[in-house]
Amino acid sequence: MDIDPRRMRVLRAVALRGGIMDAARLLHLSPSAVSQQIRQLEREVGIPVLDRSRRRVELTPAGRLLAARADRIEAELAEARRELAMLSGRVSGPVVAAAFPTAIRHLLVPAIGQLARTHPDVRPSVVDLEGPEALHELGTGGIDVLITERDGGHQGSPPPGVAVRALLDDDYRVVVPAGWEASVGSIGDLAGGPWVAGPAGSACGQALDRLAGEYRFSPRRAHVCLEFPAVLALVAGGLGAAVVPLLALADVPADAIRVTAIPSVGFRRLSALFRTTPSGPEPVVVALLGALERAAEPHRSRPRTPGRSGRDQQHAAEGGADAGRLDRPEPFAEQVPGQQRGPDRVQRGEDGDDRDET
Fold first, then answer.
1. Torsional sign, CA 55, 58, 62, 63
2. Beta strands in the chain (DSSP E)
3. Of 295, 248, 288, 292, whose CA–CA distance to 268 is shortest?
4. Read out DSSP for 278-317?
5. What is the pLDDT of residue 250?
């Protein structure tokens, strides 16, 4: 029998995405086109590969066998792309990156500008996506790189087959309304007041929980917001204090808020997650990771001084733009390149990948 490997790729997409509709979105085909390819594959092999007797289609034993073979075919094609890239020095093709708004603005946009200069044949695409849905898309091929955040005091493990590269440790600051008393010097001074908190599970939400545990108080979460422009607007309106990372303060309205000098607030870690194999990730992913590391460098070498207004913070950052610039970091470093933190162990997955504990 002759089996068309292109139809094997369609079956693999159905297996990965768990259905014909999602497979069609992944392959940029119509659902009817996917169904036609699957039926043609069944005619070629002479046996059903999908069980259509249930509400949600499932792979038959023959379908699972062929999908596993399709995985091997895709792995061989990926290895061929890596070898050709090494041989020619040329990287081309699409790469889809997902992130939250702050990372899109300060990391992905500069990285894409770099890619246009260094790898003009790479075609990047950006999706505003995070959380469990983004992890699902990464694991099933919908996106290639996912930028995540977590509070530096929290650890976790990436899913199987996914590796992590730390990009940036983004220091936290406690910000308060400009009209509040200037004597705020510790978390204890704010314990009884209102807070503009991040949602449960978000990096800033985790940070406030951690600080509440360290200083033994129950924060009054008067407002809960995920996006930093909304958080800072509430703070500027005099409605509470907040824990925010330095990237969020890059364009803070002048004199609208006050950045306190409270020490030891912690940091959030921004990391890039990507699928990989024992041979490494796809060449387009390697190119994007390198561009992201370079985009993160200025933020590692431009610390902002606490205790200043928004305008002074921005001026200090711009004045030190070229100071202490770092050499390009080595990939898969045990900590964020160029930033001195306690050593984060690197976890090696069952498939041999190095995984930063996130």
1. positive
2. 50-51, 58-59, 93-99, 122-128, 145-151, 162-177, 194-197, 220-224, 242-245, 257-259, 267-275, 346-348, 354-356
3. 248
4. TT-S-HHHHHHHHHHHHHHHHHHS-PPPTT-BHHHHHHHH
5. 81
pLDDT at 329: 30
Secondary structure (3-state) at 22: helix
CB neighbour list of residue 105: distance below 8 Å, 6 or more residues apart = none
- Please state the separation of Cα 297 from the chain's center in Å: 17
Asked if 57 contacts 14 with a C-beta cutoff of 8 angstroms, the reply is yes
Closest CA to 241 of 222, 226, 255: 222
**How do residues 15-59 score in pLDDT, each as one tens digit?**
988 889 989 988 888 999 999 999 999 999 999 999 988 888 899
pLDDT above 70 (res 315): no
Q: How far is CA 60 from the centre of its chain?
A: 35
pTM of the model: 0.76
Tell me which residue has tokens 């796809």.
282
The C-alpha atoms of residue 174 and residue 307 are separated, in whole angstroms, by: 10
The predicted pLDDT at position 339 comes to 58
Q: Which domains does the chain have, with CATH numbers?
A: 5-85 (1.10.10.10), 93-358 (3.40.190.290)
Q: Which residues pair with 174 in a beta bridge?
A: 243
Token pair, residue 269, equals: 């870690």
Alpha-carbon gap, residue 244 to 313, rounded angstroms: 14
Q: How far apart are CA 136 and CA 164, in angstroms?
A: 16
Task: Please enumerate, as own/partner, the contacts of 100-106 that have beta carbons within 8 Å and a separation of 24 or more.
Answer: 100/128, 100/130, 100/147, 100/149, 101/128, 101/227, 101/228, 102/228, 102/245, 102/247, 102/248, 103/147, 103/149, 103/270, 104/128, 106/247, 106/250, 106/295, 106/299
> Which pLDDT does position 321 carry in this prediction?
32
Q: For residue 355, what pLDDT band results from cuts at 50, 70 and 90?
A: very low
268 by Cβ neighbours in 10 Å (0-12 / 13-18 / 19+) ranks as: buried
CA–CA separation, 198 and 221 (whole Å): 9
| Alpha carbon distance 13, 153 (integer Å) | 37
Is residue 293's pLDDT more than 90?
A: yes
